[in-house]
Structures are given as structure tokens and as C-alpha cells.
Design brief:
The radius of gyration is 25 Å and the shape is globular. The longest helix is centred in the first third of the chain and has 47 residues. The model has no long low-confidence stretch (mean pLDDT 82). With 335 residues, the chain is an all-alpha fold. It has a domain of 185 residues: MetI-like (MetI-like fold).
């Protein structure tokens, strides 16, 4: 009977935490919507005040003013900016992304095809980064007072210093030109060959993930070193647990809390870094589509891609914040 009040108290605290978690999620979703609205206004305004008319770019410099005016009207770019913005937002909310100014084809299938390249590339880069960062960060933290720890930390510093496009070029020289075991550029579609598609993404994913893994390893090292010196870990070792057992059972969860925030930022960095990597390996992904659309003044396509990236980054940050508070219930939910 003495345990009943204690059990009720635990259940009450859990219900209170779930309630606060729901309120936190509602507030963050409201913030997400407001941020996306402000981002859409900013993106639309910046792209539409840039010099140069899309119709002029499409028709060329020799086009007559009347032809440019006619194409501008056909594209709907002669309407007030507010009307254009509302039409664009309505299309985003109804998942009708509009038609390309250049090809007059629907944009959604084009972006979908590009995501079949960029999505696996970013996930592959994240997997490579984690496979490098977790063992490297933990090992360098455990041996941080030894020479081996200094060497491991130095390797991470070297990885941070090397730009991913330079690493990509080096990988092409070694594995594509010299060894001829992987393709140097291009992409085999998933419908043609799953194996060929994976082979096309191996070197780009490694190029993308090595640098991000080195950055994340530094944060893991710092977080684990702090946990190793914590009182609760010393207490666990005093109770008879070996250092590695104490770290696995009691330390890694606490060490993962600050790393989660960095992981969310690094995932955003992977999305941005994919633009450069796709250019190095000539991949028909979202980055290549964005660059070609900017060059051709295909503003509607640029707007759709930028909003897709912005939404992805904000949603990732929301998920990370939520996980942050689920792992550590002591974390304030009112922020």
C-alpha cells in the first residue's frame, strides 16, 4: 500500500509531462507556420525585384518588346505582385506547384525526379557521417588524455578543414579514374537499375558525409568528455561498473542530448552541401535543378525549391527539439 501513492505520483508527473509536450508541440507548429509564411514572402519579394525579365531570358536579347510583353502576360507576370504571390501560395497549399516558365511543363514531377537523387544522397551522407562521428567521437573522448586521443582528434580537424568538393574530386581520381570501380559522374535512374543508382551515389555520399562526420565527431567528443567527468558516472563506477559499462548504461543518453541539436543543424548543412556535390558529380538532383532554374530565370521553379528546402530544414529542427525534450523530461517545454 505504501507504494500506491508513489506510483500515482509517477503517473501524475508523466501525464503532466505529456500535456506540456503537447502544448509545446502546438506552440512550435504555430511558430513553424509563421516562419514559413515570412520565408515565403521574403523569397517571393527577393526573386521578383531581381533585374531581368523571365520573358526576355526565354525569348533572347533579339526579341521585340511586343513579344516580351505578350509572353509576360501569358506567364501571368504582368499581374500585381500580391495576386501573383497569392496564386503561388494557393498552389503550394494545394500541392500544385505550377508550370515551368521555360518548358511549360508541371514542376511537381520535375522536383519529384530530382528528389529521387537528392533525398538518398542526403540520407547516405548522414549515414556516412554518423558511422564516422559516433566511434571517432567516443574513442577520442575516452582516450582524450592519451596520445591516441590526440591523433583521433587531429583526424577530425583535418576532416573539417577539407572542403567536400575537394574531397569529391580526390575520390573521383582514386576510385573512378585509377581503380575504375565506381562511376565518376552521372546518375543511373532507380527504374533502370537499383544497383547502378546506388553505385552512382556512393562517392557523392562519402564526399558529403566525411566532412559532416568530422564536424559531428568534435561535438560528440566534447559531450562525452563532459559526461565522463560527471558525478553520476563516478558514482556508477564506484558501484562496481567498469568505465565502458558506466558510459554505455548511464552516460551516452546524457551525452546525446546536446549532440541532437548539432545533428539537426548538420542535416540542414547536408541539404545545402548537396548542391555543391551534385555539381561536382553531375547529378540531376535538386541542387542542379535549382542552379539551372536560377540561370534561366525560371522563378516559379526557384521559389518552389527554396520553399521545399526551407520547410524541410524547419521540420527537421522541430523534430530535433521534440526529441531533445523527450529524451530529457527535465528540459523546459515553455521555450
Amino acid at each position: 500500500m505504501a507504494d500506491l501513492p508513489k506510483a500515482n505520483d509517477i503517473a501524475s508527473r508523466r501525464r503532466a509531462h505529456v500535456h506540456e509536450l503537447r502544448r509545446f508541440l502546438v506552440r512550435r507548429l504555430a511558430t513553424l507556420v509563421i516562419t514559413l509564411f515570412l520565408a515565403s514572402v521574403l523569397v517571393f519579394w527577393i526573386l521578383n525585384i531581381l533585374p531581368g525579365k523571365p520573358a526576355q531570358v526565354i525569348l533572347g536579347t533579339q526579341a521585340t518588346p511586343s513579344a516580351v510583353a505578350a509572353l509576360t502576360a501569358k506567364l501571368g507576370l504582368n499581374r500585381p505582385l500580391v495576386d501573383q504571390y497569392l496564386h503561388w501560395i494557393h498552389g503550394l497549399l494545394t500541392l500544385h506547384l505550377g508550370d515551368s516558365y521555360i518548358s511549360s511543363q508541371p514542376i511537381a514531377p520535375v522536383i519529384g525526379a530530382a528528389l529521387e537523387v537528392t533525398g538518398p544522397l542526403v540520407l547516405g551522407g548522414l549515414l556516412v557521417g554518423l558511422l564516422i562521428a559516433i566511434p571517432l567521437g567516443i574513442a577520442s573522448a575516452i582516450h582524450h588524455t592519451k596520445r591516441s586521443g590526440v591523433v583521433l582528434s587531429g583526424l577530425a580537424q583535418v576532416g573539417i578543414a577539407v572542403p567536400n568538393f575537394v574531397l569529391g574530386i580526390l575520390l573521383i581520381i582514386v576510385f573512378a579514374v585509377d581503380l575504375k570501380v565506381l562511376p565518376a559522374s552521372g546518375f543511373t535512374t532507380w527504374s533502370t537499375s537499383v544497383t547502378g543508382a546506388l553505385e552512382s551515389l556512393v562517392l557523392p555520399a562519402i564526399s558529403l558525409g566525411l566532412v559532416e562526420g568530422a564536424i559531428l565527431a568534435r561535438y560528440i567528443r566534447t559531450s562525452v568528455v563532459e559526461v565522463l567527468g560527471a558525478d553520476f558516472l563516478r558514482t556508477a563506477r564506484a558501484k562496481g561498473l567498469r568505465p565502458n559499462q558506466a558510459l554505455v548504461r548511464h552516460g551516452l543518453r546524457n551525452a546525446s542530448i546536446p549532440v541532437l541539436t548539432v545533428l539537426g543543424l548538420e542535416l540542414s548543412g547536408l541539404i545545402i552541401g548537396a548542391v555543391v556535390i551534385e555539381a561536382v558529380f553531375t547529378l540531376p538532383g535538386l541542387g542542379s535543378l535549382l542552379l539551372s532554374s536560377v540561370a534561366n530565370r525560371d522563378l516559379i521553379t526557384v521559389q518552389d525549391i527554396v520553399m521545399l528546402v526551407a520547410t524541410t530544414v524547419l521540420v527537421v529542427n522541430l523534430i530535433v527539439d521534440l526529441l531533445y525534450r523527450i529524451i530529457d523530461p527535465r528540459m523546459g517545454l515553455r521555450s
